[in-house]
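The following record pairs a protein chain with its ligand, phosphoric acid mono(formamide)ester.
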Amino acid sequence: MAAGFKKELISPAPSFKASLSRKRIALVFFENSTRTRFSFDIAARNLGAATLNFAASTSSTSKGESLSDTIKNLEAMQVDAFVLRHPSSGAADLITGITDKNVINAGDGSHEHPTQALLDMFTLREYFGTTKGLKVVIIGDVLHSRVARSNIYGLLTAGAQVGICSPVTLMPPDASRLGVTLFTDLDQAIAWADSAIVLRLQLERATGGYLPSLEEYSVHYGLTDERLERVQKHLLVLHPGPINREIEISNHVADRIQPPGYSKSMLLEQVTNGVAIRMAVLETLLGTASAPLS
Ligand code: CP
């Protein structure tokens, strides 16, 4: 379904059936977002749905209203689905106990970001033809990353081999039980992999005792042309964004979408794919066809 939506999306004059024309979708964001929020908004509007944009800073949350009361009040306005981003792990699961409406997790704390993983897997499958047997290494702050967790579950389910590469301080304590290959040496990790998902270094952690310094992190875990050339490896590079240029990824690696070079960046392709994937998610949950994702 997402592939069909993407084909139309990138056509010169996109036209979609307004299959969700009577639906109201609340985009409830308690954390900042550019990609996820706008792509859900565009996806919903493409399908004819109305969107309600909630931002914590301009809502009655700033007067102390709870998450539960916020959801109940929006539901009373006859909202059909909630897209929730929240800093607390488990927030999306919590509100499924408060409302009977559809709840889509748009990122909860350091727990999960399922639609990001779906769009990452879609991007990989589009490029390689399949994710089965593909070797994907996730590089960086895996410990705090909801993107990493959802991708590990999703990619393993889809038959990929998954590696994680990070300093030991940023490895999840249960890493050895996740069914992934562990690396602390980035050269070894990229020599192993077909593709890399580079994670945003959460700069607020840099001073929290997890890292000696940003410079040292960049030297050992930054993905650069020089490193790829040294390892003689062509790598398909993904990153969920936002990126810290010249920290976890060099400008050249982030921006190179054409040869020559040892990398191909999918960063903006991922963003386009995010709209198609979120259209497919909304159509599957709220449309009449209720077709499975493909
Ligand atoms: N990838 C991602 O979740 O980006 P945003 O925080 O901009 O939504």
